[in-house]
Amino acid sequence: MKAFLGRARRHVGFLVGATLVAIVLATAILSTVWTPHPHDDLRMALKLKPADTTWWLGTDHRGRDVLSRIMVGAQTSIVVGLIAVSIGMAIGVALGAWAAARRGWVDELLSRFGDLVLSMPAVLLAILITSVFGASATNAILAIGIFNIPVFARVTRGAALTLWGRDFVRAAAALGLGPLTITWRHVLPNAAGVLLVQATIQFAVAILAEAGLSYLGLGAQPPVPSWGRMLYDAQTYLYDAPGLAIWPGLAIALTVLGLNMLGDGLRDLLDPRLRPLRVG
């Protein structure tokens, strides 16, 4: 752990990504107990007010404080991303590890299932789900989570197949351990680094997908603040109040950038083949 922390302190990309992610997380946590103004208070007399010492980022077309809504919107993005990635990871890792352990028709069937799901874009899948169950954050989570399943399944399968060819796994099989025991004791712990990196990257993808779905009206529904919905509402006022689009767009960009840089940094730090090249 000390060696990892020492390398991490010298990895600029990892530090920048971790800092951005920490700021977003801190903002989301802070918004649960404090915001500059109530995020859902309508003050039509104060609509489209420019930034000042009272309204730090101004107000929107309904007189609501933009900063407060961005802070609460961070909660929406993080919760949707966290649950969606957890769903994809839990099911995908299990399926990928099963496919690598059993191979044969199980591997082929799961691989074709993954191809089928990945052939359908997440937005199209969300439209299909919301057309049946209605537009909501829950259904957006379900759509993004389903799309993440084959991603984690493929990553887990690839890492597990490599590990199944290693001597220590063959030795465990020679000792009479079953596929499930070997997978649990030896394969998954050694694939944890790869899965952690993939989870970080998919978290960024999930936040971006949630913003896109909310922009289309398929994600979190009003009055729940969402960065994507704020972008949708701002498009009518781009000339009168460009900040309404700039601030939520900047929040999305910095969050996704931070998660991607954090994922790349973790990949460099956890992969010994990349340490001499990228960490110094």
Main β-sheet description: none
Q: What is the straight-line distance between the termini?
A: 17 Å
Rough outline? elongated
Top-tier CATH class: Mainly Alpha
| CATH architectural type | Orthogonal Bundle
Cα-atom radius of gyration: 22 Å
Task: Compute the number of strand runs.
Answer: 0
Structural class: mainly alpha
Folded structure, characterized:
This protein has 280 residues and is mainly α. The chain has a single domain (78-278), classed as Orthogonal Bundle (MetI-like fold), CATH 1.10.3720. It is built from eleven helices and no strands. It has helices at residues 2-9, 12-31, 66-102, 104-118, 122-133, 137-164, 167-174, 179-215, 227-234, 243-270, 275-278. Helix 3 packs antiparallel against helix 4 and helix 5 (122-133) packs across helix 6 (137-164). The chain is elongated and about 75 Å long. The model is unreliable at 276-280 (pLDDT under 50).
In short:
The chain is an all-alpha fold and about 280 residues long. About 75% of the residues lie in helices and about 0% in strands.
